[in-house]
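S1.2 Input.
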Amino acid sequence: MSKYVERVLKETAARNGNEPEFLQAVDEVLTTLDPVLKKNPQYEANAILERMVEPERVIMFRVPWVDDKGIVRVNRGYRIQMNSAIGPYKGGLRFDPTVNLGVLKFLAFEQVFKNSLTTLPMGGGKGGSDFNPKQSPHTPGKRCSDAEVMRFCQSFMTELFRHIGPDTDVPAGDMNVGGREIGYLFGQYKRLANEWTGVLTGKGLSFGGSLIRPEATGYGDIYFAENMLAMRGEKFEGKKCVISGSGNVASFAAQKLMKLGATVMTLSDRSGAIFCESGITEKMLKDIMVLKTVKRGELADFAKKTKAVKFFAGKNSWQIADKIDAAFPCARQNELNGKDAEYLLKHGCTLVGEGANMPSTPDAIAAFLKAKIMYSPGKASNAGGVATSGLEMSQNSERLSWTAEEVDSKLKGIMKSIHDNAWEAAAKYGDKGNYVMGANIAGFVKVADAMVAQGVC
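S1.3 Output.
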C-alpha cells in the first residue's frame, strides 16, 4: 500500500470512526488503486482521494408524520450528495431501521464508482430514513398501512424537495422503496415544486417510468455474469445457482437465470430461506413475487403452502445446497461472510455475482480472489438498476417512451461495457481477471480526471 493511500485511510478512519460500513467501502476501493496512483501523480497533487471520501454535502432532517391512530411519529431523514463531478447526484432512497449516516455514506461512496462505470453522466448520492414500512408503529406484527406510508413519504419529500432536481439530484428507490413509495414521493414533489420533471426514477409507467426498470438490477447482474462466463467459454445452461433475497433484484435475477437454463435452488428473506433442489419453478417464482409485492408477506408463509420447498428459518441461502455452481447475493450488505465463502468454494462454486451493495465481507472477498473464481463486486454487476434509471432520465428529458426491447438491449450493452472496462483495467494494471481491482480503477479514473479538470471545488 502506498504512503498516500495509507495516510488517507488513517485520516478517514480518524474522522469517521463510528461508521464501519463506510470505512469498509473506502478501504475496499482505495487499497486497489496503487497501480493507477503511481502512474498518475496528479491525483495526489490534487488531493483526489481526500476529496472523494468526503461528501460534497450531507443533509439530515426530521420527518414528522401522523399514524392511523392519530399519534405523531418522528423519524430521521438523510440525503448524502457524495460527488457530482460527472453529473447530477444519482442514487436510491432506503427506508429501513438499519439506516444511519454511516450506512448511507458507504452506499453513496459505492454509487459514485457504480455510476461512473455505467458510462452515463451521473454523479453519486444516496438517502433514506430509519422509517420501517414493514412494521406498524402501533400494531406489532403488522405493516404500515398505505395511508401511513403515504403520509410519511409526503413529509419526507416536504423537506427533501428543496435539495433535489433533474439537474441537481435525482433519487430512486432502494430497500423498501418501491413503486408505491416512489409514486407518493413524486406526487408530493410535483405538488411542492409546481412542475412535472423527471426528478425521481423508478416511476410508474403511467407517469414517466421506464419499461424494464423493475427488472434492471437483477437482469443486469446476470448479464454481467454471462460476460464473465463467456471469458471462460461457458454458459448458464445446466448450472445450479443459489440466490439470497426475494425482492426485485433476487426475483428478476432468478427469472433471467431460469430463461438461460439454470436451476435456481434458493431465495431468502428475513424469515429464512427456501430450498428446492430440483429448482424453483416459474410458477413458484411468480407466486413469490405476488406475495412480496402485493400481499407483502414472507417466505415462511409461502413455504407453509408449498410442499415442494424446504424452509430454513432464520438461515441465509449459502450453506444449504450440496452442489453449487454460482451464487448471487441480492439482499443486503455483509450478508455473505468468510465461512459462507468457504462453504461455497468447497461445494463447487466458481462464480459469485453480487446483486446487492457490498454483500460480501472482506474475508469472503479475499477467499474468492485467492481461489481465482469469477467474482464481480456489486458496484459493477448491480449497476443495471441505476443504468436503467439513467435511461429513464433520458426518456423523460426527450418526452419519449422506449419499448421494452430497446431498453433491455441498451441495458445489455451497458453491462457488457462495464464488464469489458473492468476486465481491461485489471489487465492493464497487472491483475488480469480481478474484477474488484478492474471495476474500482475504471470507475475511479473517470471521476478523478473530471475532478482534476474542474479544479479545487
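S1.4 Remarks. The two ends are 27 Å apart (CA to CA).
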